[in-house]
């Protein structure tokens, strides 16, 4: 039991209340908000180092809120997977809030911008930390309610319509999630994820029938895919991403989407993987819910890559290009996860594929965060986000363009940037998937990745050539980029380069995370349920 | 009793989904409320609706010793939490639908320009 | 809606609703009730006043103050007061969560004491959960009344 586990959550929630209280003093409010974000990064780093990565770290730790023992109370667990996601959230979060202070107008910041930002962070942190299925639903809602308001933040016709659509879709998603959670409770008799994993592993010892778990987990998959914006649940993505303030869009793409991916990995690989339930559908037989996950998530990922790639190629606005691109990139994360689900449970390959997905998620968080912020900086400087009105930015503001260049190259996957390793590992997983599981579906995954990579090159080149090369247009000639915004972009670009150059420790971190995701027994141990006594 | 609950859950989901698919903004908001209610009824049903004996209530069955004659408290806590959340969401949806109506000058979702 | 029937009904029911709300709030930590439901009932009582009289009645009729017109609804004194209640509630909730940590318990740990020999009641149970509930109560009252007054002013 360590206080460090809950520290990031407490820092974020305290900052949210403080910034709300300081609403009448804008300067102090901004300072508190940035200070809170710095505190968040500090608490995450200390917690991750002391509990997961450091030399004397136990590898994982647990916090029982309110001193209620698991499985009755709410359990927070910080293990490798949570630590990886939290680190990502902290990185994108601090960049996003620093950019916000320089980008969002003072008048708009005074309204509920800062409290809501930190509530978004609270929701994300809670979702990464919680070890309780219903609690996961609650953190999703915290995150979503902040997101609804952010999408409607500017109050234009476009923003309110996008927010309303986003809300309706997610309310239905939440209803489905409640149905799944309630059903799992009735089927297994518990909501604690560790307890559920333990019970599903030995259903006879607890007198439960794990048969409904396959269907209920499929329901959960739909909800998580909605959060991650995977095809066919991607409809809210372009509208919401273009309507929300740009720093928040960076948070959406970099962090809240990853919550959906995290939930899929956590629920399926840590919890449901322990169940041995025969899945017998037409054309699909497997021994555990993962057998169901592999083809469905794989199909979703492949479709996302196609829809996102082709969508991004045709867009004119920078933000729209990146919004569609982000649909496609989530597909790149989903495909390795699906390959991992299809892999042999005992082999080491499953962990490699999960690590590939995590590295890609990190790459996407950094690169897409950078690009969304850069799109906002460009729009702020030139007063237009349309590619046809842009041109020659590379000569006009070289530093800003340099940051964008790094982001685009990372998206394409050029070594030694982070994106290269993301793509390389995804392809590696796909090729190994064909080797271990030959068949048309594995080949399709590889082909989809190839097509996706080509499409990425296509739209990245298009953005660069039409927006940054060529003769300076009228909008660009009068443009002046804000130095504070550019500084944040340069810092993010440096992070993209540095993570790529010093990739070894990052990969070991991802491996730790993948191992933690797959090791259900360790998870149960950490939560403290293997002591033998049932109460 | 469980048949009645099943019918209620099914009916509520049907009505809610029907309302969510309407063009009129207010009906969509009603749909949000009804769908949430449907999940509450469903959650309560998941805890077992007969007198709480050991084999009906999972948490009592396998965790404790003697089983008191009470309903499953966990589902009630879940429903309470879900009600609070859906209360907030519905309030937000109402305000948002009003704003969306003001900005887009139409209650009909299909007439929105974007 | 400001008919005589409505006003008379409101006069009778509002105090009853408020008393029920407070009793629900006080017993909420171990009986049906609690901060949320108490807060919603309290807000409902205020909404009844708004419906039976009008939006300015709380300021002009009850508090006997001049109502400032022409400002944005967010600047009105009642609305600022509601927002302060909301904020106070959040602070109380957080503080009650941190309170347990001061004596080394995990976040949100609750406890209770039985006080005996109290006049009239003889025995009173004091639960720290009541403090948390108070926070919830204030948050609910503050947020619901802010929403209602801002939306109805539109």
What does this structure look like?
The complex is a heterotrimer of chains A (535), B (114) and C (154). Chain A has one domain (3-523). Helix content of chain A is 76%, strand content 3%. Chain A contains 22 helices and four strands. In chain A, strand 3 (279-281) and strand 4 (284-286) form a beta hairpin. The mean pLDDT of chain A is 91. Chain B has a single domain (2-111), classed as Helix Hairpins. By secondary structure, chain B is an all-alpha fold. Chain C has a two-stranded antiparallel ribbon with strand order 1-2. In chain C, helix 1 runs antiparallel to helix 2 and helix 4 (77-102) runs antiparallel to helix 5. Chain C is globular and about 50 Å long. The model of chain C has no long low-confidence stretch (mean pLDDT 86). Chains in contact: A-B, A-C, B-C.
Summarize the structure.
Chain A: It comes from Halorubrum yunnanense. By secondary structure, chain A is mainly alpha-helical.
- Determine the mean pLDDT of chain C: 86
What is the total number of structural domains of chain C? Answer: 1
Principal-axis shape of chain C: globular
Residue share in helix of chain B = 55-70%
Which structural class best describes the helix and strand composition of chain C? Answer: mainly alpha
Biggest sheet details of chain C: 2 strands, antiparallel
Number of helices of chain B: 4
Number of strands of chain C: 2
- The fraction of residues in strands of chain B falls at under 5%
Percent of residues in beta strands of chain C: 5-15%
- Please compute the radius of gyration of chain C using only Cα atoms: 18 Å
Order of helices and strands of chain B: HHHH
The number of helical segments of chain C is 5
How are the secondary structure elements laid out?
The complex is a heterotrimer of chains A (535), B (114) and C (154).
Chain A (H helix, E strand, L loop, with lengths): L2 H19 L4 H28 L7 E4 L10 E4 L1 H24 L2 H24 L3 H19 L5 H32 L4 H9 L1 H4 L6 H16 L7 H8 L2 H26 L7 E3 L2 E3 L2 H26 L3 H25 L6 H34 L10 H4 L1 H15 L5 H19 L3 H28 L6 H4 L5 H19 L1 H16 L1 H8 L8
Antiparallel strand pairs in A: 1-2, 3-4
Helix pairs in contact in A: 1-2, 1-4, 2-3, 2-4, 3-4, 3-11, 3-14, 3-20, 3-21, 4-5, 4-11, 5-6, 6-9, 6-10, 7-22, 9-11, 9-12, 10-11, 10-13, 11-13, 11-14, 12-13, 12-18, 13-14, 13-17, 13-18, 14-16, 14-17, 14-20, 14-21, 16-18, 16-20, 17-18, 17-20
Chain B lengths: L1 H19 L4 H22 L11 H6 L9 H32 L10
Helix pairs in contact in B: 1-2, 2-4
Chain C lengths: L3 H24 L7 H18 L4 H6 L14 H26 L9 E7 L3 E6 L1 H25 L1
